[in-house]
């Protein structure tokens, strides 16, 4: 009986699990990537079994609902998405860790690499345009025409009616 040293090296993103044997002979330690094989009388087939490594994908961001976080294997293509809360809009994705981000859009893909990954989501306040108009008077305020403000901002407006007119009311559209 001949003793042969055997070893198995996993590809990136995989780990050695165990040896399978078909035919005569025995393996010193079936759970060791480097072990010995003692041949028997006849042909034998040895198989190194590898399993994919689980990697965690985390998505961080505030003022949004996101999908796609979870546990995946190398090469998995995951759809990630962001639905910002009211008054906010998507700005960008950034990656810390292993993998590859797709397009910089609210819904995109992420290809899992050989390691854990944290995807950071940047959300910004939506700018709203405020235009003030009127007739028979003068409107004044904080840059009152095509003013860009974010949700819950306060602006100051005033109206001075022309002679012979009274201010009636402010009307909003939108």
Which key terms come to mind for this protein?
rod-shaped; mainly beta; six-stranded mixed β-sheet
Structure summary, number of beta strands: 15
What gap, in angstroms, lies between the N and C termini?
88 Å
Q: Give the SSE string.
A: EEEEEEEEEEEEEEE
Low-confidence stretches: none
Largest sheet: 6 strands, mixed
Q: Structural class, judged by helices and strands?
A: mainly beta
Q: Roughly how many Å is the radius of gyration?
A: 32 Å
SS summary, helix count: 0
Beta-strand content = over 45%
Helix content: under 10%
Describe the structure in your own words.
With 174 residues, the chain is mainly β. The chain contains no helices and 15 strands. The strands form five sheets. Strands 6, 7, 8, 9, 10 and 11 form a six-stranded mixed β-sheet that branches. A three-stranded antiparallel β-sheet has the order 1-4-3, with no helix packed on it. A two-stranded antiparallel ribbon has the order 2-5. β3 (25-27) and β4 form a beta hairpin. The chain starts with a strand and ends in a 13-residue tail after the last strand.
């Amino acid at each position: 009986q001949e003793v042969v040293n055997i070893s198995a090296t996993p590809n990136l993103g995989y780990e050695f699990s165990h040896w399978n044997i078909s035919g005569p002979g025995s393996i010193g330690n079936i759970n060791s990537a480097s072990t010995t094989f003692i041949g028997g009388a006849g042909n034998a087939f040895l198989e190194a079994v590898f399993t994919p490594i689980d990697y965690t994908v985390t998505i961080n961001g505030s003022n949004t609902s996101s999908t796609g976080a979870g546990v995946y294997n190398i090469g998995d293509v995951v759809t990630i998405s962001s639905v910002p809360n009211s008054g906010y809009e998507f700005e960008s994705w950034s990656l810390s860790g292993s993998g590859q981000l797709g397009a910089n859009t609210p819904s995109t893909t992420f290809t899992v690499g050989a390691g854990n990954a944290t995807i950071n989501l940047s959300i910004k306040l939506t700018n709203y345009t405020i235009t003030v108009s009127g007739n028979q008077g003068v409107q004044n305020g904080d840059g009152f025409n095509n003013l860009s403000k974010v949700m819950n901002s306060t602006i100051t407006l005033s109206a001075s009616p022309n002679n012979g007119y009274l201010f009636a009311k402010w009307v909003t559209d939108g």
